[in-house]
Specification:
39% of the residues lie in helices and 18% in strands. The chain has 5 helices and 4 strands, in the order αααβαββαβ.
Length: 153
Amino acid sequence: MNSDLDAIDRRILRELQADATIPLAEIAERIGLSQTPCWKRVKRLTDAGVIEKRVALLDRDKLDLGLVVFVAIRTSRHDQDWLDAFARAAAALPEVLEFYRLSGETDYLLKVVVRDIAAYDGFYKRLIAAAPLTDVSSSFAMEQIKYTTALPV
């Protein structure tokens, strides 16, 4: 669908990424369309899966979840059964916000959010019980310099 996106679609997407609670009438006004064509474009983008869902972004600090940990995992197992079991177990841990399979020396990278070191220790124990791992290395974020959920459209 990327090639089907025109400049107006991209403007709609930027507006929605900035604030998905903006009324459709306001989006239409900002981009110079009437409401019906704007609604049709949003519906087409939603039906095509470009707009996956609309969510509320929460403040980690106000929820006492101020510690961000990047967990690099190496394994000596690369078979599909191991991957399926590990992926299910890791994805089910609510502290895991992002989970990637990588190329290079690190096999998997998790972005984890917890309250503090003690909470991370509990998470770590549940993680290593999920599947056999060769190495788990944790890096604690010292400062968040940039954070966005907006894609560059």
